[in-house]
Design goal:
The chain is an all-alpha fold and 164 residues long. Helix content is 85%, strand content 0%.
């Protein structure tokens, strides 16, 4: 899981390094993340030799299908960081709504590809896929969130600085 942690840090540092990530940069980061996630999934999901080609074909389809969701999530992180300087109720609500939508899209995709794997391989392997993806997504998100201060922390620090 050391690679997953490194992956999460890389994703955070890379996305934080650019004020506005271009589509080409976002694609490059998502492709790198995809390669590293695929390696992690290969260690977390047992796939019988007879099912390997089918599993990885469907997994690759899943990764392609989720590129847009990943790009949106990256843009959300950027938008959130940019909004810290002028946060208001409308901006906060818009960001929260976008995060909910992004997470719902990810969950729908997981369910779609769980069902594809269940039908093409078996339910046990499909469940292992689901567990691995949720685990990796949770690890990546947690790593990013641990390194990025919340708006409340920023707000408190600004207020404390103004008080001095």
């Amino acid at each position: 899981m050391r690679k997953v942690s490194i992956l999460a840090v890389l994703l955070y540092v890379t996305s934080a390094s650019f004020a506005q990530t271009s589509d080409a940069e976002a694609d490059a980061m998502i492709n790198l993340l995809g390669v590293q996630k695929r390696e992690a999934v290969s260690k977390l999901v047992y796939v019988a030799t007879k099912d390997s080609a089918t599993f990885w074909k469907i997994y690759d389809e899943y990764m392609v299908a989720n590129k847009a969701t990943a790009k949106i999530r990256m843009r959300l992180y950027e938008s959130t960081a940019q909004a810290y300087g002028n946060m208001n109720a409308k901006t906060a609500d818009s960001l929260a709504t976008a995060y909910f939508s992004n997470r719902n899209d990810q969950e729908k995709s997981l369910q779609t590809y769980y069902n594809k794997l269940k039908a093409s391989v078996n339910a046990v392997t499909a469940f292992e896929f689901y567990q691995a993806e949720v685990y990796l997504l949770t690890q990546i998100r947690a790593s990013i969130m641990q390194q990025v201060p919340t708006y409340g922390e920023i707000h408190r620090a600004v207020k404390a600085k103004q008080g001095n």
